[in-house]
């Protein structure tokens, strides 16, 4: 089962769009290739009568892009031809999607097909009687069911019914890359570390043995940080904790039919002891307490005085390489390495993002319309010949066949050409989250790191299906206490000998049992606990 970590404060499911979008270009005269897939959408008899479908598409990757006329919109033409529909697509302005959709619903003008950004929205609109139950129809679409993993479909389940289709893949395996100074390793005659102990020795050498050769005590083995709310997630320290199979502030797994709260698991104590050992050895840049934004961590990367960091693999791209040269006077030999294999066998770059976004269908749609919409989605997400036309853009402009293989040309386009066809971003949803060609990386090492990291994207954690308990008035304070305590333990401000007191305080002052009971109840409702 695949899940990911959640916010204890909200316990609401959210999924970020955070993808690297490519631009657009000029259309050539050639028509897109017709599908050869034997799926329902190509059955001419089944779709003999044209049907009008209205789509509320807040899943676009560029809400500001205008919708082109039908005769210029290649992707729209493909969708309409594939299942014989007249597609009326609405793109809400950024930040106004919820208001616009609620206005349409209040007026009784509910779109046939809706893209929703969170599972919370999906459940809410279903409870309001707005969305259809898709359970009776999905068995007719085996290719669509195979396109997304079990965890993604489980996220579409609510009250024992499937009420949505996964919206699109989230992107993993790029933002949490393990960067290390290979030139420093060579100078110190050391190998790429593969375990926590080896990593510690490398960080210690990077701190103490003058790897940059300037005769000064000005280098460090590692730097991480935490956001302004005191949350350790995404800033590096949490990645070190994954070596021990745990993560803050509220990652929850299900093992042996029981919920396991990884932020208070005994292995978390080991993870904190490891980081505290780093602090005591002074291999951590003391500026870590001020690293409250990704930009600040990037500055440390560019300056080249830290030998090991957790950063986005796109920092290998030419633009970032140029920043390194401007700031430090050189381009350090940063390489992306596999994550360390921890004492319990964990080797994790990050956890697979939760499938929060979805396609839902209006309850007003009759059986024939539901089948037609699902047929369109199956074509959109599973037709191999159509895939590059949606994921990359227009053939001959954004991509082309080179030696029989698809080559993304977006990065080669001029600014004017990209702006001319911004609207292709309305249709990029089928792009796979592990498709390096989609990103059109300019440095082959970026693509290599992205591809290699896919091996170490851990399973999504089941805690993501949990929704907030309105009666849990201590949720925010509990989260704050957990975060503050973890930081104190790892920094040494509070000795780990007080770990049991920490757990006791969670129970007595912050009613941890109520939180546990809520998790068990919702896991049982979801069928994750019997």
Describe the 3D structure.
It is a single chain. The protein has helices at residues 74-83, 97-106, 119-127, 142-147, 150-155, 182-187, 196-208, 237-241, 266-280, 294-303, 318-328, 367-382, 387-391, 415-420, 436-439, 444-453, 475-491, 499-508, 512-525, and strands at 51-56, 85-90, 113-116, 157-158, 161-162, 165-166, 177-181, 252-255, 258-261, 308-311, 334-337, 350-351, 358-361, 399-402, 405-408, 457-458. The two termini are 15 Å apart. It is globular and about 75 Å long. The protein has 19 helices and 16 strands. It is α+β, with helices and mostly antiparallel strands and 530 residues long. Helix content is 35%, strand content 11%.
Order of adjacent strands in the largest pleated sheet? 2-1-3-13-6
CATH class of the largest domain: Alpha Beta
Any idea what the radius of gyration is? 25 Å
Helix segment count? 19
In CATH terms, the superfamily of the largest domain is Periplasmic binding protein-like II
CATH level-3 fold name of the largest domain = D-Maltodextrin-Binding Protein, domain 2
Largest sheet: 5 strands, mixed
Keywords: Cell membrane, Lipoprotein, Membrane, Palmitate, Signal
Pfam family, one: SBP_bac_1
Signal peptide: 1-22
InterPro entries: Bact_solute-bd_prot1, SBP
């Amino acid at each position: 089962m695949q899940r990911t970590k959640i916010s204890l404060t909200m316990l609401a499911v959210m999924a970020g769009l955070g993808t690297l979008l490519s631009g657009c270009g000029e259309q050539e005269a050639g028509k897109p290739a017709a599908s050869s897939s034997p799926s329902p959408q190509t059955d001419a008899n089944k779709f003999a009568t044209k049907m009008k479908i209205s789509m509320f598409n807040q899943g676009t990757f560029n809400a500001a892009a205008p919708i082109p006329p039908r005769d210029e919109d290649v992707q729209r033409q493909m969708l309409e031809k594939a299942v014989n529909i007249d597609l009326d697509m609405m793109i809400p302005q950024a930040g106004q999607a919820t208001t616009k959709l609620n206005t349409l619903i209040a007026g009784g003008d509910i779109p046939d097909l809706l893209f929703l950004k969170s599972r919370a929205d999906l459940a809410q609109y279903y409870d309001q009687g707005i969305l259809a139950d898709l359970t009776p129809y999905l068995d007719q679409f085996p290719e669509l069911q195979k396109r997304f993993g079990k965890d993604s479909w489980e996220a579409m389940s609510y009250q024992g019914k499937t009420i949505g289709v996964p919206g699109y893949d989230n992107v993993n395996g790029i933002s949490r890359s393990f960067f290390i100074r290979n030139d420093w390793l060579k100078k110190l005659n050391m190998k790429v570390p593969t375990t926590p102990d080896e990593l510690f020795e490398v960080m210690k050498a990077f701190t103490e043995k003058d790897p940059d050769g300037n005769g000064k005590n000005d280098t460090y083995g590692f730097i991480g940080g935490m956001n302004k709310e005191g949350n350790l997630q995404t800033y590096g320290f949490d990645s070190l904790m994954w070596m021990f199979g745990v993560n803050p502030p509220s990652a929850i797994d299900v093992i042996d039919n029981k919920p396991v709260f990884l932020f208070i698991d005994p292995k978390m104590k080991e993870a904190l002891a490891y980081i505290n050992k780093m602090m005591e050895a002074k291999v951590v840049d003391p500026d870590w307490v001020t690293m409250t934004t990704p930009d600040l961590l990037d500055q440390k990367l560019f300056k080249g005085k830290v030998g090991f960091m957790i950063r986005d693999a796109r920092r290998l791209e030419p633009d970032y390489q140029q920043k390194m040269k401007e700031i430090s006077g050189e381009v350090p030999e940063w390489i992306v390495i596999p994550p360390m294999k921890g004492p319990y066998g964990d080797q994790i770059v990050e956890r697979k993002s939760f499938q929060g976004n979805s396609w839902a269908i209006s309850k007003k749609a009759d059986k024939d319309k539901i089948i037609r919409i699902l047929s369109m989605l199956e074509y959109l997400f599973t037709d191999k010949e159509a895939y590059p036309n949606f994921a990359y853009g227009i053939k001959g402009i954004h991509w082309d066949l080179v030696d029989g293989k698809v080559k993304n040309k977006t990065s080669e386009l001029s600014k004017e050409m990209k702006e001319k066809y911004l609207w292709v971003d309305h249709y990029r949803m089928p792009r796979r989250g592990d498709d390096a060609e989609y990103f059109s990386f300019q440095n082959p090492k970026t693509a290599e790191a992205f591809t290699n990291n896919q091996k170490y994207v851990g399973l999504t954690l089941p805690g993501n299906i949990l929704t907030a308990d309105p009666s849990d008035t201590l949720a925010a304070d509990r989260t704050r206490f957990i975060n503050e305590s973890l930081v104190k333990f790892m920094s040494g401000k509070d000795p780990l000998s007080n770990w049991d007191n920490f757990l006791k305080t969670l129970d007595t002052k912050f009613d941890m049992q109520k939180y546990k009971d809520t998790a068990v109840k919702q896991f049982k409702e979801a069928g994750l606990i019997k």
